[in-house]
Amino acid sequence: MNTSSVTAIAHPNIAFIKYWGNRDNILRLPMNGSISMNLDGLCTRTTVSFQPSLPFDELIINGREVTGAGLDRVSYILDIIRGMANIHDRAEVITENNFPSGAGIASSASAFAALAVAGSKAAGLNLSEPELSRLARRGSGSASRSIPGGFVEWQVGTTDEDSFAFSIAPADHWKLVDCVAIVSASHKKTGSTEGHSIAPTSPLQAARVADAPRRLEICRKAILEKDFDAFASIVELDSDMMHSVMMTSTPALHYWKPASLDVMNSVRMWRTNESIPACYTVDAGANVHVITLESEAHIVEKRLREIKSVEDVLVAHAGGPATIVKNSD
Amino acid sequence: MNTSSVTAIAHPNIAFIKYWGNRDNILRLPMNGSISMNLDGLCTRTTVSFQPSLPFDELIINGREVTGAGLDRVSYILDIIRGMANIHDRAEVITENNFPSGAGIASSASAFAALAVAGSKAAGLNLSEPELSRLARRGSGSASRSIPGGFVEWQVGTTDEDSFAFSIAPADHWKLVDCVAIVSASHKKTGSTEGHSIAPTSPLQAARVADAPRRLEICRKAILEKDFDAFASIVELDSDMMHSVMMTSTPALHYWKPASLDVMNSVRMWRTNESIPACYTVDAGANVHVITLESEAHIVEKRLREIKSVEDVLVAHAGGPATIVKNSD
User: Fold this and answer.
1) How far off is chain B from A310, nearest CA to CA, in Å?
2) Which of A204, A205, A215, A256 should one mutate to test binding to chain B, selecting the residue with the greatest count of B CBs within 10 A?
3) Which of B23, B51, B100, B302 is most buried by a 10 A CB count?
4) What is the pLDDT of residues B42-53, one digit of tens each?
């Protein structure tokens, strides 16, 4: 058995075309494809070592031991890895996020991407990028997109085998910046896993899914051609469509707060009335990701900070792939 | 020719299942049926007299002469009436609203209902309620619902002949109250007529329309059985579905302001956490209609007034049909 202690880092990502709802909740096969950008500067750093002496898997997040559902979700991925590598040792998983939880940036994407990379390598496997993306997907759908670098598309696929993400352009292709307007640091009431499972209860979800190939094509083309106007329209439309589905689910999920709408309406006005290249997108939470060009990022950040209900602004550029940073074998 | 000066009043209405989008923009045949409640206390009072001496139709709203598009829309209805009555005289139309414009209550419904009633009678016609509802519909779709009294359903119909509204329960059937939280008195940027015409551009409109018969049935049943919980869920769902379509149209229509969301989120919390029977519905504007029971109306009004961004609260009970109040012939 060729196991070792491996450390990997992965970035969270912000989706421009959103993932919401699964065809298969266990395999996390999505209802529609999605497109995202990795967020540089923000990362999860995870070390995995399989140890014969351990009676159980151990998970330490930001210095604190985690048990229960959090550990179960990690063990589920470790079980898949153990099955692939044909090993039986339990693992110690030590993980740290350099960004605060509740900052409007889900840590599950970077966490499961880093776990997939570090865990598979520590188990002696040498997985390809698509294989790593598929493995990360099993822990959190959006984690599949944190494996490749830069601008990433997660193709919907038809089975576990072909539902993975790949890079459509490297991080330096287009100097986009995500200014995250933090309007609420409180933890969201309904997590994404539960949210995905109720997406089919919305009378609007089927229409949103059926229209997804069109939105994906417009967004992909806008990124490849660096066409900010086309990009802005489709990104806001897609975000509003996901929240339309969320709001009309049973139970209804209302993630927007008044402050979210304040930022969204402001950004739209800046773009429409002043030709400032900025658009919003909102995940399953209240904070607003404002996407802009690097050249305008300082103006956008300054304006966001001037909005009274904005508590803080995080700024992130396009980031690279999940990578191994330390391998002790 | 048997013409006279006739005065009619009609109430605005608040839709519980919304009308949004037309199959026929000229005839104002709707994409889906709708259900509403007339609003007592608020009304448009309109006097119509056909006069041989007039070279043109004249329109006076709240003491001011109106020309241009506003007059054209009234003359269009007067032309239909003249055609039906086989008369050719131009008319003087004097109309007054007892509620402020920009108060979150569209005046077009009560205005065209009062015009249909007063105008047809002044032309010597004796139209049935369905005929009056169809005539009012030609001026403004929702005006068809201000003809019958109390709780009203506008059946979608298949042609001009069968697309009219009828009462499903009288005003005293259920003591519902509409507390209109005024958060913005500014005039909306995009009017309903233009909004209806772009509804098909939303990828979600077809799904919203296809699901309408289900929502209509749930709402109708909840009203007939006075089941507030069932009523509240379907009313909020329907409002959110209409705004989902609006937000995802091209161009996108965003009517909600931060203060709207503040009221909406508050109302939902009062109901969920404190079992206060209240729910929200929002038309093509920022103001929020909070529907509650008469027994709770004082509490709901008081709480709404405590929300900082609420400028004023209008309170209206269920109202009666459009009626003739004066006939000088």
Assistant:
1) 13
2) A204
3) B23
4) 999 999 999 999
Residue of B208, B241, B247 with shortest CB distance to A240: B247
Which residue of B lies nearest to A207 if distances are taken between CA atoms?
Answer: B204
Q: How far is Cα A87 from Cα A1, in angstroms, rounded to an integer?
A: 7
User: What does the block give as tokens for B310?
Assistant: 């609420």
Is residue B246 helix, strand or coil? helix
Task: Give B245's contacts (C-beta < 8 A, 6+ positions apart).
Answer: A244, B20, B21, B199, B202, B204, B205, B208
Contacting residues of A for B252, CB less than 8 Å apart: 236-237, 240
Q: Where are the domains of chain A?
A: 5-171+320-328, 176-317
CATH number listed for the domain at residues B176-317:
3.30.70.890
Select A5-171+320-328's CATH number: 3.40.50.720, 3.40.190.10, 3.40.1390.10, 3.30.230.10.
3.30.230.10
Neighbours of A154 (CB within 10 A): 29
ipTM of the complex: 0.91
**Among partner residues B203, B245, B258, which is closest to A211 by beta-carbon distance?**
B203
Nearest to B258 among A203, A211, A259 (CB): A259
Per-residue tokens: A178: 């995500």
Distance of CA A49 to CAs A115, A326, B44, Å? 11, 12, 77
Name beta bridge partners: A34: A154
